[in-house]
Design a protein that fits this description.
2 copies of one chain form a homodimer.
Chain A: E1 2-7, E2 20-25, E3 35-44, E4 72-79, E5 89-92, E6 99-102, E7 108-109, H1 125-137, E8 145-149, H2 156-165, E9 169-174, H3 177-185, E10 191-194, H4 200-207, E11 212-217, H5 221-230, E12 231-239, H6 243-246, H7 260-264, E13 268-271, H8 281-294, E14 301-305, H9 310-318, E15 325-329
C-alpha cells in the first residue's frame, strides 16, 4: 500500500491538522516512460500554505481530495525510462506520500556523494530562493546591512548566512529568543531581534544603527512595516513570501508607508519566484555547494518522523515552531 | 513692498486657505553675488502638500511663518552677479511671493524663444518627473499597457501623452467625467476611468483587457490597490506620489495584496524622486521640447490670477479641481 496524506478540507481560518486525512491507497503502477520514486524525506515550508488559500496564490486554486503537495527526496525503485536507474537519488515533487509516479523530466538527479537532505535545504528551492532573492533581487553587497524576517526559517537562516559570506552586516527577525540565540551564536548573524517583544521597534532600531540596505521579506505585515522605517535611501526589499498572512482567512492591509516611504526613500520592492531564475540554478548550486563544503554555510534541519506527523508539524511550523528547514523523514 | 503668502498654521486634517496669510513685506535687497527675481507665475502641485505633513515627507520638517514654497518662473530685475542679466527669464524656487532673492546657482535660465510657462509643466519638474518615472523607473515600452492615476494632474496628463508617444496603450484614472473626456478626446488616451463611480473596478478591468504592464502611481491608496489586481506578471509600478494621502492627518494603511501580489506576479514597485535623475535633465528636456514643437505633447495649464487666490487654488487642487498644471499668474 501507499500511505498518503490528503487535503480533506480547506481551512477557513487557521490551518488545523484536521484539514488533512491519512489514507492507504493501492501501490501505484508505472506506465511506459514513468518512474516510481520511494519518498525518503520531504520538506514542509510555509509557502505551501498559500496553495490552500485560493486565487490569491501563485499556486493556483486549491483542491481537496488530493495528496498534499511538497518537495521531497527519494530513491528510484522502479523505472520504465532509460533516463534514470533504480537506486538513483532524486529531488522531485513527491507530495506527502510514500510513493509517487514521476516523469523523468520532473526529477533532478542528486549527484553521488551529495547529502540528499541538502536538496531540501541549501541546494534545493530554499537555498536557491535565498541566493537569488538576496543577490539578484536584493542586490546585497559587501558592507551593506541586510535584514531578514522569519530569519530562523528554511529560507531565512540561509539568507543571513549567505549575506555574511558576502561581507554584509546581518540582522535577523524571529519570534523567539531561542531562535535568535541560534542565529547569532551558531550561524554568525550580527544581531537578531524578537518581534514578539514589546520593545521590538526600539530593538530593531538599535540593531541597525546604519539603517537597512536590503530587507529580505518572508513575512509581510507589520515586520515589513518596521523595515520600511529602517530602510536607507535607495534600499531594496526582496519580497519572497508572506508568512504572516498565509494562515488566516482575512489578510491584513499592507503597512502604512506604502507607497509614501517608497517615494521618500526611493526604495525598490520587488516580488520574485525562484523559478524565474531556473536558467541560473547550476551556477548557484555550484557556489552554494562550495560554501557547504568549506563550512561557511550551515544547513539547519528540524526533523520530524513519519508521514502521520506531517499535518501537526505543518500547523506548528505556521505558528513558528521550527528552526531551520522542517523535514519529515519517512 | 513684496506681497507674500506665509504658512500661518500647519493643517491638522485637511488643508484650509486659513492655514495661510497674505502679508506685505519690505522689498528685499540683494547682497554681493545675489539676484532679485520678480515672479511671473508659479505652479501649485500636490506634492508640496507633503511638506506640511512633518517628518513623513522628503521635504523635511514643516515650519510656520515662512513663505510657502513653490517653483516659479520670473524675470531678473536686479543682479549683483555676472552670471545673469537683468531681463533674463529664469526657473527657480520663487515661493508664493512677488519677489525673491536668489543665488545664481539656484536659477535655471530659460532659453530665448521658449515659453516660460512650459518650464512649470513639461519642461520643468512635472515633465521630467513624468519622463523619468515612465521611461526609467516604469520601463514603459511600445505595445505595453500603461495605467496612470491622477491622470489629469500636472504630472499625469504628461505621463499618458508620453506613453502614447512610446506606442503604449494608455489608461488614465481620474475623478471626474469631464477630466476623463479631456484625456481621451484632447490628449489621446485610449481610455479613462472615473474612480468615483461605483463600478470603478469593473470599468478599470474593461479598460485594461490585456492587463497593466506599467502603473504610474500618483495617488497610492485604493487606486494603487486596484492597479495591483490588474498588473501583469513582471509589471512595474513607478511610485511617484501619494496624493490620496497628503491632505489628511491619518494616512491609510497600504493596500491589501502588498506584498502578496508582488510575489505572485513578480511585480517591481519603485519609489523615485526626479532629482535623482538631474544628470540626465538636458537630454530629457531636449526630447520633450521636440515633442512640444511637433505637437505630439500638449501642455495643459489651469491658470489662476493673483497671489491672493493661491491658497484657495491649492485647497481646490487637493480636492481634484484642476485639469493639467495649476499655475498662479502674477
Amino acid at each position: 500500500m501507499n500511505e498518503q496524506i490528503l487535503i480533506k478540507t480547506l481551512p477557513s481560518g487557521k490551518l488545523s491538522a484536521d484539514n488533512y486525512e491519512r489514507v492507504a491507497s493501492p501501490m501505484p503502477e508505472i506506465q511506459a516512460g514513468e518512474v516510481l520514486v520511494k519518498t525518503n524525506a520531504f520538506a514542509i515550508t510555509a509557502g505551501t500554505r498559500a496553495g490552500l488559500q485560493g486565487s490569491a496564490s501563485y499556486a493556483g486554486a486549491p483542491t481537496t481530495g488530493i495528496v498534499m503537495g511538497g518537495t521531497g527526496v527519494g530513491t528510484v525503485v522502479a523505472t520504465n525510462s532509460d533516463a534514470v536507474q533504480v537506486g538513483d537519488q532524486v529531488l522531485t515533487s513527491t507530495g506527502w506520500q510514500q510513493y509517487s509516479v514521476q516523469k523523468p523530466a520532473n526529477l533532478e538527479l542528486i549527484p553521488a556523494g551529495h547529502d540528499p537532505l541538502h536538496y531540501l535545504g541549501p541546494m534545493g528551492v530554499n537555498g536557491l530562493t535565498a541566493y537569488f532573492g538576496l543577490l539578484s533581487v536584493g542586490e546585497a553587497r559587501a558592507e551593506q546591512t541586510v535584514m531578514v524576517s522569519a530569519a530562523a526559517g528554511s529560507v531565512g537562516h540561509l539568507v543571513g548566512q549567505m549575506a555574511k559570506i558576502q561581507g554584509c552586516t546581518v540582522v535577523g527577525v524571529a519570534g523567539s529568543d531561542q531562535k535568535n540565540d541560534t542565529l547569532v551564536s551558531k550561524l554568525g548573524f550580527d544581531a537578531a531581534v524578537n518581534y514578539k517583544n514589546g520593545d521590538y521597534r526600539a530593538a530593531l532600531k538599535e540593531a541597525t544603527p546604519d539603517g537597512v540596505d536590503v530587507y529580505f521579506d518572508n513575512t509581510g505585515g507589520f515586520i515589513l512595516g518596521s523595515a520600511l522605517f529602517r530602510m536607507n535611501v535607495g534600499g531594496r526589499i526582496a519580497c519572497c513570501g508572506v508568512v504572516s498572512q498565509y494562515d488566516t482567512g482575512s489578510p491584513e492591509p499592507g503597512p502604512k508607508g506604502i507607497p509614501g516611504l517608497l517615494v521618500n526613500k526611493r526604495i525598490t520592492m520587488r516580488g520574485f519566484l525562484v523559478f524565474d531564475f531556473a536558467d541560473q540554478y547550476n551556477e548557484a548550486r555550484s557556489e552554494i555547494h562550495s560554501w557547504l563544503q568549506s563550512g561557511a554555510l550551515i544547513s539547519l534541519t528540524d526533523q520530524v518522523s513519519g508521514l502521520a506527523a506531517a499535518p501537526a508539524a505543518f500547523v506548528d511550523l505556521l505558528a513558528g515552531g521550527n528552526i531551520g528547514t522542517r523535514v519529515v523523514m519517512l
